[in-house]
Amino acid sequence: MTEIRAIVTDIEGTTSSIDFVRDVLFPYARKRLPAFVETHGDRPEVQHWLHEAAREAGLIEASRQDIIELLLGWIDQDRKSTALKALQGMIWKDGYEAGDYRAHLYPEVAARLRQWRADGLRLYVYSSGSVPAQQLFFRYSEAGDLGPLFAGYFDTETGAKREAGSYRRIAEAVGEQPQHLLFLSDIVEELDAAREAGFQTAWLVREPQALPATPRHPVHRDFDAISF
Ligand SMILES: CSCCC(=O)C(=O)COP(=O)(O)O
Ligand SMILES: [Mg+2]
């Protein structure tokens, strides 16, 4: 195996449970989104993402109410829209700061990330959640503030997670040849794209999911099972 110099990890389904995102974060944002847009809709960064959402949907002359309904529908569909993710991140900030929740991590994740860091590996995140949302996630995790462990964060402004070009851009940004990078994810199409770009891959298949009979990528039950 070629030397691994840096690890790029997905969040949902990889470091953390899908249930936490679906049952805690999404409903929190869904409930507060209408009031958030009404109250903060004139802030330039909010205006920018509302405009981007309308553009993505092909809505011309959409009212604020139209955009709110559009975004609520996208939350329900778990659409990986960059605009939606940016707005969700702004709303989640209040919940983290108020102590309404802490980001879930699978039990071995924090210790294993610390060990990889102590071994000299650089750690990065690549998630559909916005970069500010990722930073909040690890700052307010169940295992404390893990932010200092990470050298950088990537979201869908770098590109879609199922496209090889996104991983090529990440490799370039971190200054490593792709073969020295290991991408961790629970989604096989993301791993396919990373491999196409030259990354090494690790497929996290957490209990109680069945192990695939003929996996296209090295499969691991948890971070402790990953060796290189
Ligand atoms: C920054 S955590 C929020 C999770 C989220 O919104 C999401 O879509 C997670 O997708 P991932 O790419 O981490 O599977
Ligand atoms: Mg995932």
From TrEMBL:
Transmembrane segments: none annotated. Binds 1 Mg(2+) ion per subunit. Signal peptide: none annotated. Pathway: Amino-acid biosynthesis; L-methionine biosynthesis via salvage pathway; L-methionine from S-methyl-5-thio-alpha-D-ribose 1-phosphate: step 4/6; Amino-acid biosynthesis; L-methionine biosynthesis via salvage pathway; L-methionine from S-methyl-5-thio-alpha-D-ribose 1-phosphate: step 3/6. It catalyses: 5-methylsulfanyl-2,3-dioxopentyl phosphate + H2O = 1,2-dihydroxy-5-(methylsulfanyl)pent-1-en-3-one + phosphate. GO terms for biological process: L-methionine salvage from methylthioadenosine. CDD domains: HAD_EP. Its cofactor is Mg(2+). Its EC number is 3.1.3.77. It holds the Pfam family Hydrolase. Keywords: Amino-acid biosynthesis, Hydrolase, Magnesium, Metal-binding, Methionine biosynthesis. GO terms for molecular function: 2,3-diketo-5-methylthiopentyl-1-phosphate enolase activity; 2-hydroxy-3-keto-5-methylthiopentenyl-1-phosphate phosphatase activity; acireductone synthase activity; magnesium ion binding. The keyword Hydrolase applies. Monomer. Bifunctional enzyme that catalyzes the enolization of 2,3-diketo-5-methylthiopentyl-1-phosphate (DK-MTP-1-P) into the intermediate 2-hydroxy-3-keto-5-methylthiopentenyl-1-phosphate (HK-MTPenyl-1-P), which is then dephosphorylated to form the acireductone 1,2-dihydroxy-3-keto-5-methylthiopentene (DHK-MTPene). Belongs to the HAD-like hydrolase superfamily. MasA/MtnC family. This is Enolase-phosphatase E1. It comes from Rhodanobacter spathiphylli B39. The lineage of its organism: Bacteria, Pseudomonadati, Pseudomonadota, Gammaproteobacteria, Lysobacterales. The gene is mtnC.
